[in-house]
Amino acid sequence: MDPTYGDPQLAAVRAAAQAGDWPGIRGPLAAAADAGDDELLTWLAEGVMLVPGAERCLSAAVAAEPDSALALLALGARQVEWAWEARTRKMAKYVSREQFELFHQRLALAQGHLYEAAERAPQWAAPWYFLQIAGRGLQVGPVIAERRFEATVRRAPFHLPAHRQQLQQVCRKWGGSHEQMHAFAREAMLAAPEGGRLGELVAVAHLEHWLDESREAQERYFRDPQVVLDLYEAAERSVHHPDHPREQDWTRGFNTFAMAFSLAGERAAAADLFDVLDGAVTEFPWMYLSADPVAAFTLHRNRAAKG
User: Fold this and answer.
1) Residue 180 to residue 177: CA distance in whole angstroms
2) What is the pLDDT of residues 11-38, one digit of tens each?
3) Widest CA span of the chain, in angstroms?
4) Do the beta carbons of residue 285 and residue 257 sit within 8 Å?
5) Are the C-beta atoms of residues 17 and 25 closer than 8 Å to each other?
């Protein structure tokens, strides 16, 4: 799996973060901000967010440029992931009290920097997006979570990462319900222009519902004719549409539909998507099938190829 999704801008930002090169990080982020491209700014900031150790360079950047919204955004984003590193991805019962305390301390630091970034650059959606992630870790509750999502999409109505976060927020595992999740996904898809990326949400919602079922029910879930119809409708409005963009992490949407169609036994539809991907596997959603996403991707691609 390629952590940069073949994107040279993201690769450059990640390399700069790994080298502790703040000017190398700031340049691409500033260009995205100056262009008013909220999703690109979010995308590049996420690239920095996922680089272990980058918080040291970014803390120094904030100390040197305390009024820089870009430095505050990058540091806040990184501190969100830094917090999850302290908590680990284990189930809560396996996380110690000390780990939870550090988790919450780091999230509080992140929120402070992200709020400051939002104050200095009130037109940006990106700080609010990262506040969505921080809020779920701090369990701020559905009302505040909804406000943070609304703050993001008020600035960037079809911001896919923000919609992905809100979909997780309304999942049953985070206190929502299957009905709320499916309604959110469908409404978001229909509100967006055809050919956009929000159709992916419908497929994700079905995968999340399927994952929450018993093993016996899972075997039946994707064979439901209504589920299959939902997938085809969403695909026609997104990955199958001629205007669907192939930028940033576009391969994640194609992987999501490929897995959903494969589980539904719609092998021809899955095979078409695997052909477009040409081996470009993403961790999500294959991690739901195996600790080795590449192996799961390969298995289902081979099954689809056999028709």
Assistant:
1) 5
2) 999 999 999 999 999 999 999 999 999 9
3) 59
4) no
5) yes
Question: Which DSSP letter does residue 287 get?
Answer: T
The answer to whether residue 95 scores a pLDDT higher than 80 is no
Question: Strand ranges (DSSP E) for the chain?
Answer: none
E strands present in 102-221 = none
Which of 74-88, 183-197, 292-306 is least confident?
74-88
> By percentage, how much of the chain surpasses pLDDT 90?
86
Which two structure tokens, joined as six digits, stand for 134?
């921080």
CA-to-CA separations, 241 to 79, 183, 238, 260, in angstroms, rounded: 37, 22, 5, 17
List C-alpha distances in Å: 53 to 17, 19, 79, 257. Answer: 9, 10, 10, 34
Question: Which residue reads 């992916």 in tokens?
Answer: 200
Cβ neighbours of 194 (radius 10 Å): 14
CB 159 within 8 A of CB 38: yes
